[in-house]
Every structure is written in structure tokens, then in C-alpha cells.
Design brief:
The protein is α/β, with parallel strands linked by helices and 401 residues long. The protein contains ten helices and seven strands. A hairpin with a 3-residue loop joins strand 4 and strand 5. It is flat, with a radius of gyration of 68 Å. The N and C termini lie far apart (195 Å).
């Protein structure tokens, strides 16, 4: 083969090789381009699918949210209906239970209201009566004041009446623990009558005399200025001092046997007493030096109650003494009984010994009386009566022994 043919063949082979490679490459490029387009299409479809999926997700989430909201609203509505229904039912039950619980109270409240209404009517009636009584008492007080201011005898009777009320309130008994208007005589045989003599234990006597100093005091209370008050208070103190001097001069403490060393000057008006001792602080000591003790209703009632308690203690002591004396008498009587009882015991012992000795003589020993008498019976004696079995048994036992 010539070189030209070889060259031509080589070129032909080379051309065929490169042509084949070119054709294959072209096919490859076309396939690659097709695949690239397919990939782009797929990527586009993927993007579209992802976008559609995202949109569907958003739509599904929104749908789920709306459904959840609707369900929530429905649930709230149902819950509200249930709660309202249950609340109404519960309220109804509670109302019924509360009505049943409060029914007795309702009845009690009605009865209380009725009684309250009745009480109001009665209280209104009582208040009206009290007002009328107060007005009446006020008029009577005015009349009493006018009477007391103008009549010394009326004043004295009024004071004695207050004293009598206090004595009754204390529990003391007239004729027992106290007496009124007791007549006593002095050395000149003149008669005196203290208002009250209160009897104390141990035969002591407490003398009380009521003295009313009211006219000047009423003027003092009704005075319109300090000058008048001072003038009427001076008159009031003069009246009290006059009563002190007169009562001291009577010397009741010397005339009444057993009287304590002082006489109680009773001022029945509390305010008049307070005004006097407040205006003249030395007034009480001045009276005391004359064996007079000034006393007001409050302190007198306390003194009388103390006297009542003293008498109660005295009665208890007397009862104790009586019980003690009775116990002594009972003890002495019981001692006599015990002595008699002891003698009776001794006599019983002596009698028992004598009985046993007599029984021995009847039933014991050979040739005792019972045996001899019974031997006569065995020999044909036919008495109408028989010996007691106890004696026969005792005799038989002794014989066997």
C-alpha cells in the first residue's frame, strides 16, 4: 500500500473518528439540553408545587383556626347554656332549701313582729301613762314644795315619812328591831319623844331624829344671782345649826337607857344635806362635838342595813347557841341511855348465867330432876302434860355423854 493510500486511509479513519465523536457529542449535548430543560421544568413544577403546598398549608391553618374559633364559640355557648341551666337549677334548689330553712324563722319573725307591735302599743300606752303620772307628780311636787315652805309641821311630817320609808326598806321590823315616838322623861319629868329608837344587839340603842331645813334651801335653789344664793345659803346653814343645837340640848343619849353616845340628825333632803356640808366643811365636826351626827338618806340606809345584818348575825349566833345547848342536852340524855343500856347488858349476862345454871340442874348430872321425873313416867305415871322436847333432848345428850 502506498503512502498516499495509507494517508488517505488514515485521514478517512480520522475523519470518521472525529465525525463519530462530533455526532456523539452533538447527541450528548442535545440530550443534556433536553435533560436541562426537563430539570428546569421539574424545578418549576417543584416551585409551583411548593408554592401551592404552602398556600394550601396557610389555607388549611386558616381553616383550622376558623374551625377552632367556631368550636370555641360553640363550646362557650354550650358551656354558658349549661352553666346558666345549672345555675338556674342550683339557684332553684338553693331557693327551695333556703325557703325551707327560713320558714320557721319567718314564722318566728312574724310572731316577734306581732309581739313587738303589741309591745310598742303597750309601751306607748305606758309612756303616755308615765307622762300623765309625771305631770301629776310634778303638780304634786309643786304643791308639796309650797306646803313644805309654808308649814313647819308639814315639813316635820314629811321628814318622818321619809325616815319611815328607809326603815321599812332596810328590813328592820317596827316593834322588833326599832320603835317610833318612844316616850322618855328627863330629871324634871318632862316628856320627850325621839322619832325613832333602833335597837342594837347587846341591848344598845340608836336614836334617830328627822329635821327638815327646806325653806331657805328652796329659796337658795331658786335664787337668780350669786348674792341671793349666798344670802339664802347662810339662812340654810343657820337653820341646820339651830336644829343641831336643839337636838343636842335634849340629850337623848342620856335619857334613853343603853343609848350610844351620839344621836343621828337625819336630813331627809339629799341635796339640802350636800349643799350644807359643802358650803360649811366644818359643819359635821361642829355637830359631832355636840354628840350629833349629821346623816343623809343614803348613809342612813347603809347604817340601817348594817344594823339589819348585825341582827341577822345575832340570830345566827343565838341559833348556834341553841343548837349547842340542845346538843349538850341530847348528849346528857344519851349518856343516861348508854348507862341504862350497859346495865341491861350486865343484867342479861347475869340472867343468862342464871338460866344456864338452872338448866344444868334440870338436865345434867346423874339423877337430875328431868331424869327422875321421866323415870316416874316410865313407871306408870300418867300426867296430863309432857316435858318440852328441848329439855328431854338436852337430858338425853347428857346421858349419852
Amino acid at each position: 500500500m502506498t503512502p498516499i493510500l495509507i494517508l488517505v486511509a488514515f485521514l478517512a479513519l480520522a475523519a470518521g473518528y472525529f465525525a463519530g465523536r462530533f455526532t456523539a457529542r452533538a447527541a450528548t449535548d442535545a440530550r443534556s439540553a433536553e435533560l436541562q430543560r426537563a430539570l428546569q421544568d421539574m424545578q418549576t413544577q417543584k416551585a409551583v408545587a411548593e408554592a401551592r403546598l404552602q398556600a394550601e398549608r396557610v389555607q388549611a391553618a386558616e381553616t383550622a383556626r376558623r374551625q377552632a374559633e367556631e368550636l370555641k364559640k360553640e363550646f362557650h355557648a354550650i358551656a354558658s347554656d349549661l352553666a346558666r341551666t345549672e345555675s338556674e337549677s342550683l339557684q332553684h334548689r338553693h331557693t327551695e332549701a333556703l325557703r325551707a330553712l327560713l320558714h320557721p324563722f319567718d314564722a318566728d319573725l312574724k310572731r316577734f313582729y306581732d309581739r313587738f307591735t303589741e309591745g310598742n302599743v303597750a309601751m306607748r300606752t305606758n309612756i303616755e301613762q308615765l307622762i300623765r303620772q309625771t305631770q301629776t307628780v310634778g303638780k304634786q311636787a309643786e304643791e308639796l314644795t309650797r306646803a313644805l315652805r309654808g308649814n313647819t309641821k308639814v315639813q316635820g311630817n314629811w321628814g318622818e315619812g321619809i325616815l319611815a320609808d328607809l326603815l321599812e326598806a332596810s328590813g328592820l321590823r317596827i316593834g322588833q328591831e326599832y320603835d317610833t315616838q318612844v316616850n322618855v322623861k328627863d330629871e324634871q319629868r318632862d316628856n320627850y319623844r325621839p322619832d325613832v329608837v333602833v335597837h342594837l344587839p347587846d341591848k344598845r340603842e340608836l336614836i334617830i331624829d328627822a329635821k327638815v331645813s327646806l325653806s331657805a334651801y328652796v329659796n337658795y335653789v331658786n335664787a337668780e344671782d350669786e348674792v341671793e344664793q349666798a344670802r339664802f345659803m347662810k339662812e340654810h346653814l343657820q337653820s341646820v345649826r339651830k336644829h343641831i343645837a336643839e337636838l343636842s340640848a335634849k340629850r337623848y343619849d342620856k335619857l334613853v337607857p343603853g343609848a350610844i353616845g351620839y344621836v343621828l340628825l337625819f336630813i331627809p333632803n339629799e341635796a339640802a344635806y350636800v349643799a350644807a356640808v359643802s358650803s360649811a366643811p366644818d359643819l359635821s365636826m361642829e355637830a359631832y362635838r355636840k354628840q350629833i351626827i349629821l346623816i343623809n338618806p343614803t348613809n342612813l340606809l347603809m347604817a340601817l342595813q348594817l344594823t339589819y345584818n348585825l341582827w341577822q348575825s345575832e340570830k345566827q349566833s343565838a341559833n348556834v347557841r341553841d343548837i349547842y345547848a340542845s346538843a349538850e342536852k341530847l348528849y346528857n340524855k344519851f349518856t343516861l341511855f348508854a348507862e341504862s343500856f350497859a346495865k341491861l347488858g350486865d343484867n342479861l349476862q347475869t340472867l343468862t348465867s342464871s338460866y344456864e345454871e338452872a338448866q344444868k340442874r334440870l338436865t345434867t348430872g346423874r339423877g337430875n330432876i328431868i331424869s327422875r321425873l321421866e323415870s316416874w313416867r316410865e313407871k306408870g305415871l300418867t300426867p296430863a302434860r309432857s316435858m318440852p322436847d328441848a329439855l328431854l333432848d338436852a337430858t338425853a345428850d347428857d346421858d349419852e355423854a
